[in-house]
């Protein structure tokens, strides 16, 4: 039984006005037909490049925007069925940490007010109980109670992110949406926050939706990974299987593109990356709706890839992949991509 | 500890002398207004002696008397009361209507916003004083009613400003965070949005105060403001007009009072705006040229300078010696060094990576080489040689020519480097025309070649496209073409791929590497990403807290680091390997420049620290693989990338 169940979710943003008043820009399909489930206490990574729709999917779960189609369920909550008001119990159950540790904390509020806000609003805590819980939360994230009376500008990026995490954990949520929580941090701070997030998950049993562009970070934190490309989820599966032996050509390219600090490993990755991507990245516009979005860059592209989006099928590793290589053409049937061409796809 | 926003704004405001003069003047006006009954030598409304009309200034009547014999000095002092009262009333009314209305329509938008904004635009289109007169026609005359009318008109300005500020504040992440935390719309508006639009409102309020004082003077002069027993400045002007055929004098003191008070409010308001705006923009880029500092026999903080610190380049294109950059520390008279004593060499065709975390000084080092130190900073070096020419103390024009030709630059944000109003072709061609004096046709042909060289498909048609028609990766290629236009000897690439997606990053790195090889061009790569370094660099210089702590060949430094900080960085990166417990970390934080110790800068975070590390400055000395700034480099067996990978 999963905690979060996202089914056939689509988010379409209406196109804005053009240069002239009667011009309308085309609608933007941010998320199309996304399916995603998270079990209680599980951490799932949502990986993709900018504009892939990963943040939009997270915002739909947080009810910061309304999806165009599809359903979101969390436990007993029918999230897409909520009216204008979001129930307090849902706000209590789902919390968020954003990427930008500067922009995500109100500069005009003390840390005490920031951390206590969800406690006041959703738990009705007051006075001593509030102070006690606030101090406890600060301890949980490795800060001290006396930090509560300071303002956000007095803290470094990593410390601010700890404050944001303390606030998110205040109501002991069942699901924490982490939107690029470490990508604005320096390397040495980043590893501290990653360790903190892992420890907190063991201690609080919250489920994580970890949204990030860095697959190596996600692999470290998450048990399962979903890969998004241009509004579509193209592959899901156990973290190790996705990272070591992907089934989708885009996942393979993504993995080969993460630079490694070992120069020897990096030389090998560079040649693999060149073999896995076709054309010049970013040279083409948005792909057609009824096509595989990766078709323009895929080295294995077939005619059908330009005309229909593949139906996801189960992979051998226990996930799902949406790629015509598995259903038509070479008929991989969910086996890793490396079986197609052992020279280029071994990860 | 850094200063709060309020302290920084205050510090900037107090340094603005004109604004401070205005502020002090306003303070005097307020004191006079408060103490008018004590200060005024005569009653402001009663003639002292019936015959003393239209007197010139004297010891009894400091500023003379008016046409019915009232003391002008006394009336002027009481006039300050009416001016401040009138201004305050109008501003309070304007804020009371404008702020809630602006918050409401800015937050909810929709049709209410559309309707309110049409009304606002209509009201604002009519001159304020005419609109106020129309409202007074409905309300009736008198100072209080007149200023109520003025306040209503000004509330439109406040509504529009608040709405625009709320639009911007509504997009802040902390607003989304508050909604996700369960805050109601009212709470979000008043607790989260309003405090952060306050600076703009404070500035606008100050300026409106000045306008309200003018409006009071105008309306009272017309006889629909202050009554005959209210000694406002506008009323005094009206009374002076009755005797204008006999003397102009009674009009001069109130006229000057209105003028000077309005000017004082305006300069103070402008000062406030500058003080707040600096906050928003975070300083401007100025061109502080690099000062020469003679190579001291003792450099590197008390340690003798090594021959060619950390270099193995036999044919150097760039040599930097003893580069330091200092910034004044706001709120103190001290300068703080943010980069101290950097030595750096880049050989011909060589890619040298300057690696470090934020605050290490790596970007400031690059800007100093270009002579582009941000405004209050002071760069000094004993020498910066670019292929045989000394850049230190080079005249500005000559240096900017070198910046355009011999040095090419790629920064992190491609769209910040491109002008959105011009085609990319024009921007790539500009240095060709300006520095190389090419004809229009020749420059266009060369631009197409350059765009093709940086891998832009179909350059013949893309040359006429505008930057917004390019993706981030393509735009960065255009920036690369601009940097390459005049055949630079050195390319400075400051985080060139940090803003790009990872699959785009790879191709950009390939491009930079290919260009360096093909053109025998040297590259100074500034980055925080060790993976990018491993992809591209031949040699590495690791920076920590303003110093180079280790240099050497890429393979050597990453395989067997000679400084504990390098080791810490290498180990802290999550790599694409199966998860296994905690990531190694470097405890603590990068210290701020004013916290740097005299001894090893890394000592407080280092797990290998001993007494010796804290006994004095540590020099960059030859190590097993290059140079290292660690006293224990030889005895420590530090782990590199290979140990971690296995």
| Fraction in helix of chain A | 25-40%
Largest interface: A-B, 79 and 73 residues
Placed side by side, the strands forming the largest sheet of chain A appear as 6-7-8-3-9-10-12-11
Report on the biggest sheet of chain B.
Answer: 8 strands, mixed
Shape of chain B: elongated
Give the arrangement of secondary structure elements.
The complex is a heterodimer of chains A (347) and B (646).
Chain A lengths: L1 E12 L14 E12 L3 E5 L6 H8 L7 E6 L2 E2 L9 H6 E4 L13 H13 L3 H14 L16 H13 L5 E5 L7 H18 L2 E6 L2 H7 L2 E6 L2 E7 H6 L4 H9 L5 H14 L36 E2 L5 E2 L2 H4 L14 H4 L2
Parallel strand pairs in A: 3-8, 3-9, 6-7, 7-8
Antiparallel strand pairs in A: 1-2, 1-4, 4-5, 9-10, 10-12, 11-12
Helix pairs in contact in A: 3-4, 3-5, 4-5, 5-6, 9-10
Chain B lengths: L4 H11 L1 H23 L32 H37 L1 H16 L2 H12 L3 H28 L2 H8 L4 H37 L11 H10 L9 H30 L9 E2 L5 E2 L3 E2 L11 E13 L6 E13 L3 E5 L6 H8 L8 E4 L1 E4 L2 E2 L5 H10 L1 E4 L3 H4 L6 H13 L3 H14 L5 H4 L9 H13 L5 E5 L7 H18 L2 E6 L2 H7 L2 E6 L2 E7 H6 L4 H9 L48 E2 L3 E3 L12 H5 L1
Parallel strand pairs in B: 1-7, 6-12, 6-13, 10-11, 11-12
Antiparallel strand pairs in B: 2-3, 4-5, 4-7, 4-8, 8-9, 13-14, 14-16, 15-16
Helix pairs in contact in B: 1-10, 2-3, 2-10, 3-4, 3-6, 3-8, 3-10, 4-6, 5-6, 6-8, 7-8, 8-9, 8-10, 9-10, 14-15, 14-17, 15-17, 17-18
């Amino acid at each position: 039984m999963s905690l979060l169940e996202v089914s056939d979710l689509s988010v379409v943003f209406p196109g804005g006005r053009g240069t002239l008043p009667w011009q309308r820009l085309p609608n933007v399909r941010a998320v199309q037909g996304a399916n995603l489930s998270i079990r209680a206490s599980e951490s799932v990574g949502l990986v993709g490049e900018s504009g892939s729709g990963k943040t939009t999917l997270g915002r739909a779960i947080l009810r910061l925007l309304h999806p165009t189609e599809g359903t979101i369920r969390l436990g007993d909550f029918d999230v897409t069925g909520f009216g204008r008001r979001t129930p307090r119990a849902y706000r209590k159950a789902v919390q968020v940490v954003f990427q930008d540790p500067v922009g995500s904390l109100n500069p005009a509020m003390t840390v005490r007010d920031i951390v206590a806000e969800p406690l006041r609003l959703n738990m009705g805590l007051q006075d001593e109980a509030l102070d006690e819980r606030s101090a406890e939360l600060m301890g949980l994230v490795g800060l001290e109670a006396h930090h509560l009376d300071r303002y956000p500008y007095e803290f470094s990026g990593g410390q601010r992110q700890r404050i944001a995490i303390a606030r998110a954990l205040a109501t002991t949520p069942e699901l924490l949406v982490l939107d690029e929580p470490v990508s604005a941090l320096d390397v040495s701070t980043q590893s501290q926050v990653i360790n903190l997030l892992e420890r907190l998950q063991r201690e609080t049993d919250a489920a994580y939706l970890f949204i990030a562009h860095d697959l190596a970070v996600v692999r470290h934190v998450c048990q399962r990974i979903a890969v998004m490309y241009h509004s579509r989820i193209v592959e899901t599966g156990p973290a190790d299987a996705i990272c070591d032996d992907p089934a989708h050509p885009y996942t393979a390219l993504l993995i080969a593109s993460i630079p490694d600090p070992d120069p020897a490993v990096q030389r090998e990755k560079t040649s693999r990356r060149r073999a896995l991507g076709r054309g010049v990245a970013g040279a083409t516009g948005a792909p057609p709706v009824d096509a595989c979005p990766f078709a323009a860059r895929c080295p294995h592209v077939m005619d059908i890839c330009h005309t229909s989006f593949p139906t996801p099928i189960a992979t051998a590793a226990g996930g799902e992949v949406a790629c015509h290589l598995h259903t038509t053409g070479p008929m991989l049937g969910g086996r890793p991509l490396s079986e197609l061409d052992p020279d280029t796809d071994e990860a | 500890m850094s200063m709060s926003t309020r302290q920084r704004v205050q510090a900037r405001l107090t340094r603005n002398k004109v604004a401070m003069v205005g502020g002090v003047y306003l303070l005097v006006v307020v004191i006079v207004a408060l103490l008018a009954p004590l200060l005024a030598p005569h009653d402001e409304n009663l003639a002292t002696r019936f015959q003393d009309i239209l007197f010139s200034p004297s010891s009894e009547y400091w500023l003379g008397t008016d046409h019915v014999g009232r003391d002008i000095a006394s009336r002027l002092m009481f006039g300050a009361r009416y001016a401040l009262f009138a201004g305050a009333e109008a501003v309070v009314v304007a804020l009371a209507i404008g702020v809630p209305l602006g918050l409401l329509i800015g937050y909810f938008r929709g049709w209410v916003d559309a309707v309110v904004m049409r009304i606002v635009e209509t009201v604002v289109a009519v001159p304020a004083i005419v609109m106020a007169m129309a409202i007074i026609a409905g309300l009736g005359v008198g100072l209080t009613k007149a200023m109520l009318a003025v306040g209503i008109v000004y509330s439109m300005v406040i509504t529009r400003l608040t709405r625009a500020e709320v639009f911007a504040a509504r997009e802040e992440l902390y607003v989304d965070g508050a909604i996700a935390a369960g805050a109601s719309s009212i709470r979000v508006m008043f607790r989260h949005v309003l405090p952060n639009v306050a600076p703009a409102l404070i500035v606008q309020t100050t300026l409106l105060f000045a306008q309200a004082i003018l409006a009071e003077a105008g309306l009272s002069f017309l006889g629909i403001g202050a009554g005959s027993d209210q000694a406002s400045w506008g009323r005094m002007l009206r009374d002076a007009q009755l005797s204008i055929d006999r003397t102009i004098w009674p009009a001069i003191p109130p006229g000057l009072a209105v003028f000077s008070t309005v000017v004082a409010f305006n300069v103070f308001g402008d000062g406030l705006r500058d003080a707040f705006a600096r906050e928003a923009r975070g300083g401007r880029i100025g061109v502080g040229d690099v000062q020469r500092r003679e190579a001291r026999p003792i450099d590197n903080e008390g340690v003798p300078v090594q021959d060619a610190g950390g270099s193995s380049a036999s044919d150097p294109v760039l040599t930097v010696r003893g580069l330091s950059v200092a910034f004044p520390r706001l709120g103190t008279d001290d300068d703080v060094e943010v980069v101290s004593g950097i030595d750096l060499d880049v050989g011909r065709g060589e890619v040298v990576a300057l690696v470090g975390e934020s605050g290490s000084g790596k970007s400031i080092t690059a800007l100093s080489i270009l002579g582009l130190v941000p405004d209050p900073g002071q760069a000094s070096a004993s020498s910066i040689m670019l292929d045989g020419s000394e850049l230190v103390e080079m005249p500005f024009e000559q240096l900017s020519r070198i910046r355009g030709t011999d040095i090419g630059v790629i920064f992190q944000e491609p769209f910040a480097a491109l002008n959105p109003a011009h085609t990319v072709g024009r921007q790539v061609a500009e240095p060709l025309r300006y520095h190389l004096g090419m004809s229009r046709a020749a420059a266009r042909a060369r631009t197409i070649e350059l765009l093709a060289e940086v891998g832009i498909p179909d350059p013949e048609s893309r040359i006429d496209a505008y930057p917004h028609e390019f993706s981030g990766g393509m735009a960065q290629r255009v920036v690369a073409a601009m940097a390459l236009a005049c055949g630079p000897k050195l390319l400075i690439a400051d985080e060139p791929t940090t803003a790009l997606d990872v699959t785009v990053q790879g191709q950009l790195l390939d491009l930079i590497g290919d260009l360096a090889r093909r053109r025998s061009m040297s590259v100074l790569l500034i980055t925080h990403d060790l993976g990018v370094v491993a992809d591209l660099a031949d040699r590495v210089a690791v920076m920590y807290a303003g110093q180079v702590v280790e240099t050497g060949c890429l393979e050597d430094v990453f395989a067997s680091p000679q400084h504990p900080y390098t080791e810490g960085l290498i180990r802290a990166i999550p790599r694409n390997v199966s998860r296994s417990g905690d990531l190694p970390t470097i405890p603590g934080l990068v210290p701020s420049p004013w916290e740097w110790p005299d001894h090893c800068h890394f000592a407080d975070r280092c797990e290998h620290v001993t007494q010796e590390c804290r006994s004095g400055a540590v020099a960059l000395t030859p190590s097993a693989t290059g140079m290292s700034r660690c006293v224990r480099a030889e005895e420590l067996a530090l782990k590199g990338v290979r140990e971690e990978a296995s």
